[in-house]
Amino acid sequence: MEAKQYDAIVIGAGFAGLYMLYKLRERGLNVKVLETADGVGGTWYWSRYPGARCDSDSIYYNFTFSEDLYKKWRWKERYAAQPEILEYLNFVADELELRPDIQFETRVTKAAFNEGSKLWEIETDTDEKFVAKYFISGVGCLSTTNIPPFEGVDTFKGEKYHTGRWPHEKVDFTGKRVVVIGNGSSGVQAMPLIAKEASELTLLMRTPHYVADARNHPLTKEQQDEAISKYEEIRDAFFTTPGGIRMFTTGKSATEFTPEEQKQTLEYVWETGGLALGSVYPDVAVNKDTNLVVSQFVRDKIDEIVENEATAKALHPDYYISTKRLIIGTNYYEMFNRDNVNVVSLKENPIVRIVENGVELQNGSIECDVIVFATGYDSMTGSLLRIDIRGRDGQPLKEKWEEGKVVKTYLGLSVQNFPNFFMITGPQSPSVLTNMPSAIEQHVDWIDRCIEYLEENNIQTIEAQEEAEKTWAQQCDDIANQTLFPYTNSWYTGANLDGTKRSGFVIFVGGLDNYRKICDQVADESYNGFTLTGAEVLN
């Protein structure tokens, strides 16, 4: 089959792929987006579990590049639910007339750089071939599901679901015995709703997490109109804040306040809801004393809410708050006061195997009708490494990154030896520590500007320099090592997969605002740290 020719191939039709398509098409390039699903949405197409919501205030969880597009949409709730976010992304695709350039139900299986033609050759599971100058990943940080290799998973005769690949139709838990493995964000959001239907719900928990109540509520017409009127303020936050979103902060360390003042402020944040526990004191992720104040406040709240003392203690997190993803939920701790809800610590009583009628533990077993795997994702690198991506001389990305254990990028955007390959919110960028639409807009804008430069100057290829990769990795590590992040095993470090940390920290924790300045400076300096080849390379 003859390969189809494009200027750019983009993988994924979520937030990243849709905006990248729009920008490059506006530039006059011939672009094709390849998407595995049969519709747009990315993560929000697949994650349809009960209670699925964004954890940024919905007024920030949208594009801001177009004021007209922004003002045509109204969010119904403070934290938009999955169906509404998916509806929004379909609205974007329709408003910008993007669908004709998206090919659905097509999974990219291989992409290889041809040294002779200086083009990427892309293969798919539909046996189609594509050729493009630019190869751009919009696969996302949290899109490849992870189910630990439990012995006997396939022997279970009941229903099995992963929160990241939920059925499109409603799952009925009425009268069923349900085991939920994992209590990250998806488990925290889903369990209170499942518990209302199930005859029994048992959480098998490895690590208890800090959970703040969302205090979600419908948005009135007045609140919706007010949000729309603040377009400039919302867009400014995308560019000038560490997380791409404005949140309540005292602007001072907790150590500058009396215990009474600390409690008063934290009570306000708790009642207001949302992620402000991570921003109320700007040094919460770097100062152990401040961190202790906030983390102990949450542990005390757990004791207040959960009636059974032993259960409350089992739910106490013992790591530094904010060094794992801070989770927001609704009635999560209250759920444990229900007679039909139980929790088992897997550190004290680990899973031995899955059996036909349930889960066998080291000490006893649990019979169930349904197993829900809320076990997260092969985050940051997993989706990229599931594709056979090969750079110069056929070098596999999987080999260069040592199966994801040693990540090497420049700015989280480019990889040495992989010319004209760009990653949107890739590893070693701020990505998951930000409001994702903010990070995506910044990345796409930078890639678009870079491609404009290449096209205007007839440059054939651009790729990261090896020394720039080393310097960037060191910079990511140096910033992370000034914080409390490295003290905690988490999916930020890959430890959710097999307990083994990656070499180095694969997220830039210096803030999206600072990261943007660094990226812009690189572009302003004619792409310092990159190697450019072509007839009219500017020196």
UniProtKB/TrEMBL annotation:
Pfam families reported in the protein's UniProt record: FMO-like
Cofactor or coenzyme needed: FAD
Highest taxon listed in the record's lineage: Bacteria
Keyword tags: FAD, Flavoprotein, Monooxygenase, NADP, Oxidoreductase
SUPFAM superfamilies documented for this protein: FAD/NAD(P)-binding domain
Gene3D superfamilies reported in the protein's UniProt record: FAD/NAD(P)-binding domain
Protein name, entry field: Catio diffusion facilitator CzcD-associated flavoprotein CzcO
